[in-house]
Request: fold
Amino acid sequence: MKRFAAVSIIIALVVVGEVLYGAHVRAASAAQATQYVLAQVSEGPVRKTVSATGTLQPWPAVDVKSKAGGTVNVLAVDAGSVEEGAGAGAH
Reply:
């Protein structure tokens, strides 16, 4: 019985050692695989172009509601016009 316990402990120690060694090797190889590329900082526009065909459909439908009350006296844009910038069209 003592011999069985001793053999079981030795096997358990070997298994634990293998697990720890494997974790160490994986961590070392991951650290070697990490490479960084340095570049000069510059300022400029960021652009991304996407091409697709088909019909554009909205993904989520959102109800837009306002808690403000009152009457709209003037709507200073034409239907279908595009306004750019914060406060564009505001008078």
